[in-house]
Amino acid sequence: MSRMTVNGRPVQFDLDPQTPLLWALRDAANLTGTKYGCGVGDCGACMVLVDGAALRSCLITIAEAEGRYVTTIEGLSHDRSHPVQQALVAEQAIQCGFCTPGIAIAAAALLARNANPSEEEIYGAVPNLCRCGVYPRLVTAIQRAGRVARRAEQISAAPAPGIDARDAAAAVPAMRAPEQGGQE
Which end of the chain has the lower number of beta carbons within 10 A, N or C? Predict the structure, then answer.
């Protein structure tokens, strides 16, 4: 049983310890914002934060994630209020949206380390592939998110999601939390 904290919630996965974190998140936890792109770590669509570092979840097993803190796009903010999410919308840096969760995660990790990144630092820290080619707008959006994070600028809120995450979890129990008292 692999135990970790996912989006602030303790969870355990009763899966083969060598299962990629990507599949545990998508299939066992129903956190489908983390996308399967290439399966070999090239595209970045499966990016999640693990202890604050942006990692490709197709390359890390649940055994390697044991005891760690994992944040998916669903956990970045429940209401799309994270500066990166706000700036991506405001700068129209989203087209098909497939790569967006991984990009948002990589950008959030960068801005947590450096809220005033250069264009070169952005390209180095956000290696994600985008089939739609929104790269120039991504740089602008990430720099704008940095200004928001530094409180040098504000962005009007993006529209609220169509469904509250708690409502979705109630309809489709996605994660099995350890029972109280440590008993299973």
Answer: C
